[in-house]
Amino acid sequence: MSAKREAELQQIRVRYGPVIDVDAELAKQREELGRVRQQTESEDAKNTADRAKLGEEYRIARNRLAELQHEVHLLEENLEDISFGVYKPHFSFQTAEDYKKALTGAREHARQMVRDGQAATCSIPWTVGDSRKDGERMVKQYTKLQLRAFNGECEAAMANITWNNATKMEERVRKAFEMINQLGGVVQVSISLEYLKAKLEELQLTYEYEKKKYDEREEQRRQREERREEEKALQEAEKAQLEAEKEEDRYQEMLAKAREEAAKTTGAQLEKLTTQIASLQTKIEEAHSRKERAIARAQLTRSGFVYVISNIGSFGEKVFKIGMTRRMEPMDRICELGDASVPFAFDVHVMMFSDNAPELEGALHDLFGSRRVNLVNRRKEFYRDVELSEIEEFVRKRGLSAQFIQVPEAKEYRETLALIEEGKHKSVAAATAEEEVAALAERFPERLFT
Length: 450
Known about the structure:
The chain is an alpha+beta fold. The protein has helices spanning 3-20, 22-75, 96-115, 132-160, 166-183, 193-263, 268-299, 312-315, 331-337, 357-367, 388-397, 411-443; strands at 120-122, 189-191, 304-310, 319-325, 347-354, 382-384. The protein has a 4-stranded antiparallel β-sheet with strand order 5-3-4-6.
């Protein structure tokens, strides 16, 4: 082959070499692709495993966080927290003294369990340095340590138990029981379930004892208020009786004097004295009637007035207080209720006299029992979502007659609303005037507007 031909072939190889070796290049690229694909699949598998591992770690961490939050929650004292529910009584003793005796018995039972070795147990025998005696001593010391820790948690719960955390404190004691027993797992020493039940019973009795003492104090306070109300009513009746007697005696003296003068007089003067005598006789009868009513009120200890009042400025619409008073002047009691403890005075919708006021009041309370504003303290006699027509219907069915005032006057409350509205109008008017002055000042800058 000539040199020239060789040179041309060389140029062709150089120029078209890649095209000529396309199959080899394709095989090479396929091999590279397979390697990359294998590497990608390996990375994907690794990432999948990492994600699964991270997901499991996240789940464990979330569960642990929930457990820790729960444990912290048990230790928090939050008055607004009722997430553990309302405490349900476990005992039904009648008096605080009965609860006290039961609590003393529960505490003695727990102490006896400790003395008898029933509070905590060890499931296996231990030896220390080949000494069974030293092993027993170790178990005894560890048991004492566990019981001291558990009793400390129980005492802290009993000291802090209140109406809104009673169930939380029970949970706290159970949690302490679980954690202390976990710590004793290595040496196989654990607090017994019977001792846990004994301490929970002691906790429950502690709470219910304090609750019963509070209820008894409230009942004594209610009875004192009732006695004070009766004493006031009796004093008012005695005062009214005394005033009526004085009035009757005074009119009797005036009547006797008028009759004496009439016996000596004739003509027009006699007619005048006769009219005066008739008037005095009427006044004597009225005074005597008032005296008799006062005597009857003093003798009838259950007589009094049942009232229905509202205070829309303080409590809103359709909220009524249904109560009773034995006062001779029942409005005195209404005025007392509307003192500085509420922003506005009460309005009376009806005032009914009854020979058995407590029975009538109790019947009305039972009628609206499910609509009490305060479902715990029955001394708070407020009811919501009540229509006056319901009370009227109840009164009518009992054969009673009473005059109801449908729309409360609420004088100070309505005047307050009017003043607030007037203030808004003044503010709007002032703002409008300022805008007008600003507009004039912008139009006529050479003038001064103030």
